[in-house]
Each structure stands twice: as C-alpha cells, then as structure tokens.
Amino acid sequence: MTIRAITTALLLGAAITISSAVVMTAPAQAAAAPAFKIPADNKPLADAVTTAIADAKAGRYAEAIAKAKQADAMPGKPQGLGPALHQMIIGWGVQGKDFNTALDEVEKMIAANEGNKNENIKQALSISFAAGNKAKQKQYADMLGNNLDNETRLFIATGMAQAGQYKEALAYAGPALEGNASEAALKFKQAVAFKMNDTAGRRAALEQLVASYPKLDYWHDVLQLARNEKGLNDEQTMDILRLRLAVGDVKTEADYQEVAQQALIAGYPAEAKAIIDKGIAAKAVQNGERVTRLVKMTNDRVAADTTVQADLQKKAATDPNASVKLGLIYWSFGKGKEAEESIRKGMMGKVADPEAAKVALGHALMAQGKKAEAVSAFDSVARNSKEAPIARLWSIYAKKA
After folding, report:
1. Of 85, 112, 180, 345, which is the most exposed, with the fewest CB atoms less than 10 Å away?
2. Which residues are bridge partners to 37 per DSSP?
3. Which domain holds residue 112?
C-alpha cells in the first residue's frame, strides 16, 4: 500500500448519487463496501456531506475536511457513515498535504477501536513517511511490533525508501529478503538498489528474479546491466546477445541486425545467418537495403567459413585456443557432439581464457540436451572472473530451459 494508493482509495472510493436522499458507498477498504442512505429529511447532514465532496473534487481540501467534520458531529447519522467520513478526512488530509490532520484522524480511530487496528496503524505509518515525521514513524513501527509478516515488513520498508531512507529500508526488509523471497520483495530490493546506484546489488536482485520469476522484463533489465559492463570482448558480448535471443528479448529489426552483426564480428557466420532467417520468419526483418547488404555479407562469410574451419582444424592439433574456437564454430552449425569434443580437447591444454572455455563447453552440452552437465560447466566458472556474470545467467537459463 503506497500513499498514492491510499489517497486514491480514500478519495475516489466514494460513489455518491443525489436524489431525494444521498446514497454513499464507503471508501474501498474491503471487497464489498456497504451503502449508506442519508434520510431525505436530514437535509443539513446531506448538504454537509455533498458540499464536502464537492470541495474535495475542486481541490479545496481544507474546506472539505471542515465540512466532513461538521457532518460527523451531526446527529442522525446512519450506521457506518461515521467511519466513511473519517476515511475521507484522512484521504483529503493526505491529498492536501495536511498530514497532521490525517494522522490525528487515524489516531482517533485507533483509540476508538474503529476498524482493523493493524491496518489503521499501517495507514498511519504510511502517512508519517509521507510527512517525514521520524518520531511518528518509530511510534507506529513500535506499535506494530517485531512479529511482522513479510508483507507488512515490506510495507514499512517501502515507506522508508519513499522517504529516502534506503539503507534503513533494506535493513528493515532483511527478513523478507531471506530464503525463497517473494517476487514483491525482490522487486523492492532491486528498486532500492537502483535508487542507491548500487549496480551489484541490483544485478543480484535481478538474477534472483529471473531465477524464480523469469519474466521477460526482468531478463531484459539484467541483460542490459550485463551489456553495460565495461571491457567486454567480442565473445562475451555475443554470449549476452545469444541469451537475449534465447529468452525472447530480440524483437525488432534493429535487434536482429545487432545480434547478427555481432555474430559476424565474433566469427560465427552460420549463426548470423540463422539469426537473420529467424528475424525474417518472425516478420521483424524486412528486405530493405541495409538488410540486403547484411544478408549478402553473411552469405559470403558462410561460404568462406569452410576455409576458416580447415585452418582451425590444422591448428587445433597443437593450439588449445584454436581447438576451443573450432568447437564453438561447430556448435554454431548445430554440431553439439563435435563441439564438445573439440572444446574438451582444447581445455586439456593451456587456453588463454579457461573460464570462457567453460562457458563454451556449457553451450555445447546444452545443444545436446545435457542440461545438468551444462549447468555444472557454467557454475564452474570462477566467481571473480569477467565471465562470471554471464555464466551465472546462462546457468539460470539452462535450469529453466
């Protein structure tokens, strides 16, 4: 529940029709709200209520609150109208930034045991965050106590974050972020990390989100973070783009062109051709001048790739790096078994980047349906290496694929 949500519920949750009597629906505090009928002969009460609502709609919140209080003090109110007026006073106080009036009204409700006490305290806590009143924040948090469910804990932490208390918010939300944290908790964690410019914290939260709640939006954000990493080489950039393609984050013609061009840069023309073909099949790639040039370049490179493979095959006998690269080219042609053999052979020697070779092996294993082995390969990448963030994402994907 946010201040905006509270305000919307309280201000807009009341529906009024005027005829011989006033019929009022209480603010949206529950799924089904009762209707209150003001007797037609109680004109002062009806006038006070309708004038209060008219003032609020016109943005005259102080006048609206005064009229609502006047109505609340009148005799002959139907049962339930009093609590509805109290919620309106709270909502209009928040809208008019008269937080003290809103808090006073909630405190009266708490003292009178009106409504759900915990919900009232949470509402007061939310208003105290909007008001920046730290003393009230502590008072209401203490009233809720430490034995809180995760939803309430996140509610309080969200209020802290909205007030700019980011470190305190994360600390308070800590228990809700442990173990199998909910989607809401992880979204909160990454949002606060974003506000704090904590890239590592945001990446960790997004990785947890794609692992447990693999929505495309989360994949897009975490892959964007991966792409923003400085010092990526061509192979690493290609691995990130491959994952974008795999999770469905490549959608536009520009996306397909970017991935295909990177495949050519990294030395995988067959993969580039497959990407272009996929874009055409999806009707995302059109036969424009730029695409025509890219297709021709790709076809020329595919034709020349036989020579490249032959050269690598000669070098692979004594050059472990050539053996790994040859394996990746085999993989790009869909030859998983040959790719695995060539990469494993290269890894037996002294390769320039052993962590990248582990990722390459993971690709070859996945191509053969060996998911568990692929995950092990990705997970074996050293945590402090440049490949680690990419390998973690491929491991997450492999577990879900």
Report:
1. 180
2. 23
3. 3-145
From the list 199, 145, 209, the residue with the least C-alpha distance to 177 is 209
Q: Answer yes or no: is 178 within a domain.
A: no
268, 274 contact by CB (below 8 A): no
pLDDT score at 182: 96
Query: HSE-up of 79 (CA within 13 Å, CB side)?
Result: 1
25-28 contacts, C-beta under 8 A, 24 or more apart: 26/80, 26/83, 26/84, 26/87, 27/84, 27/87, 27/88, 27/91
Residue carrying structure tokens 């008269």: 98
Tell me which of 94, 115, 145 is where a domain ends: 145
The per-residue b/e assignment along 24-63, b for 16 or more CB within 10 angstroms, e otherwise, is bbbbbbeeebeebebeeebeebbebbbbbbebbeeebbeb
Residue 214 lies in a domain: no
Positions in the chain whose pLDDT score sits under 70: 1-36, 147
What are 152-175's pLDDT values in tens digits?
889 889 888 988 999 999 999 999
CA distance 229 to 248: 21
Degrees (nearest 5) of the Cα angle 366, 368, 369? 65
Q: What pLDDT, on the 0 to 100 scale, is given for residue 36?
A: 61
Please state, as a whole number, how many other Cβ atoms lie within 10 Å of the Cβ of residue 401: 13
